[in-house]
Amino acid sequence: QLLCFARAMVRHNRILILDEATSSVDSDTEAIMQDMIDTGFKQCTVLAAMHRVKHIAMYEKVALLDNGVLADFDETKKLL
């Protein structure tokens, strides 16, 4: 995960797709990675699959899935 994340930082892609990117790292590394996402990918579209509400709150919009089916899609502040 960290290697792929580092590669994404170097490549400067316009779209970043993350699937539980911080799920297998310690809390210090998780905080560093989240800060890097917030600062290093400001001009990118970030599509992130995650379960931790504290990270979801940082995104503009959220899609809620229920058993793999789109249940809701709206601004994060409206859904949380």
UniProtKB/TrEMBL annotation:
InterPro entries, per the entry: ABC_transporter_C-like, P-loop_NTPase
Residues in coiled coil: none
Keyword presence, Endoplasmic reticulum: no
MF-aspect GO terms: ATP binding; ATPase-coupled transmembrane transporter activity; hydrolase activity
Assigned keywords, A-Z: ATP-binding, Hydrolase, Nucleotide-binding
Top-level taxon: Eukaryota
Record Gene3D superfamilies: P-loop containing nucleotide triphosphate hydrolases
Stretch forming the signal peptide: none
GO cellular component, one term: membrane
Official protein name in the record: p-loop containing nucleoside triphosphate hydrolase protein
Species the sequence originates in: Pseudomassariella vexata
Classification lineage: Eukaryota, Fungi, Dikarya, Ascomycota, Pezizomycotina
